[in-house]
Amino acid sequence: MSDFCLVRQPVFSSTGSLIGYEVRYNDADDGQHGFAQSFLSGTFDLVRNRLPAFVPASREQLIEDAFLAAEPGSAIVLLPADTAADVVLVEAIARYRAAGGLLALDQIGADTSPAESLLSHASWVRVDARAGNADTLAAICARLTNGTAGTAAGALKLIAANVEEIEHYEATLSSGFHAFQGTFFSRPEPLPAADMPQSTVAAMRLMGLARDGNISDRQLEDVIATDPVLTFQLLRLVNSAALGGRGVASIGQALRLIGRNAFLRWLAVAVAAARKSKTGVDQELVRQAVERGRLLEQLVGGGRDSGTLFLVGLFSLLDAVFRMPLNEILDRVVLSTEANDALLERSGPYANALEFAESYELGLFENATMIAKDMGVDQAKINDFYTNAIIWTAEALGAALEAQQPGMKRAS
User: Fold this and answer.
1) Quick one: 218 and 332 in the same domain?
2) Which of 21, 79, 297, 391 makes an SS bond possible with 8, Cβ 3.0 to 4.6 Å?
3) Which positions fall inside the HDOD domain (predicted)?
């Protein structure tokens, strides 16, 4: 069990590529820094997934050389705007940068901040996209970048944080920001002619049949067998991920070996993975949807069904994944009344599980912990649930990609 909590939030480039994650922590009860604990346990490297991690830090952590053990370039330290420069801090920054570390200034706004005296040491600056209108953001950008090119840190790059609306994104993009993060990238953006591939629609209908207790395994197998492509993909998916290559040869055998709930989960993963991703934002949305499904699935207990929990988590982001209103997506699949209530009305026995996931993903650890307590979930296991969801999703989506591209082999 972990005595700290962490969450990662994606950072995207101006072209939509995933360039890294911000990794947020709550402070452990024993006073040790969450970063140190996650680094020693290997969780930090797992969560950042070989990409740079922007890590909020304090003056004290830098002075204590808390980040020197990290692989060079793996942790980009975010110093708050009210951090004033002094000899001891500058020396600590010099040690960190000499070891290959990168520094970022955080929470910079319209007014000049004490931390800006450290601009010559910084590679990144993060600005709140809500700091003002387009003119204000452009002025902040000009103030920060004026004269910084050619410093020891190289050309300064700007991150727009808290990008929540299209206006925030357009204003920061036009002002010259290089990277972006915020809830705007996980919200649905309906397209005029958005629709799902017919195979995806068929798979979603099968999910409804799989949940119907009146449909036997044999009947379900017969229905799936009418779609050879889906049959092939599901068998590859179940073989490569669910059973460790035990040689499942038929849908019926898969149902008998892993059970209908687990089979339903793999069918749902296949649906999410079927989204043709054009950008890193699209790929991350699929990953987040499956991760949320797996995270919620582990909150079983108190009368909550694990299969329903998984589907509530997954479907809660499918409007953003497929760029369609959620009610239109749910019209194509038969979920339980409780699942529909949670997704559309935020009511019923599964609504608090969804609220837990959303709070945790935003780094609202105290609120998430309170919800977990009300649900009867062991709070000491929350971080383990989250990291397990990341591990499981990476394996599941890797298997799903293999199933869609038979000639492809995953890198070892």
Assistant:
1) yes
2) 21
3) 196-381
